[in-house]
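Q: How would the structure tokens look for this protein?
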Amino acid sequence: MGAKYWAQEIKKAERRSPKEAAARRLDRLRSVLRRIDPALANRAWREVGDSVQRITDRYTQ
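A: Here is the predicted structure in token form.
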């Protein structure tokens, strides 16, 4: 899926709710990290893990 697809999906979700937009951004991150070397993906998840957890906590309440 291309950048144009994700940009459109995130904009649509943003119009519906910030929570849904955050979920779509996380979906995009997962999709990007799925395609790279597993060692790099694990490192990226570790580096953004705290931020992702804060976003997840914020929107699951």
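The mean pLDDT is 84.

Residues 13 and 20 are 5 Å apart (CA to CA).

Upvote if useful.
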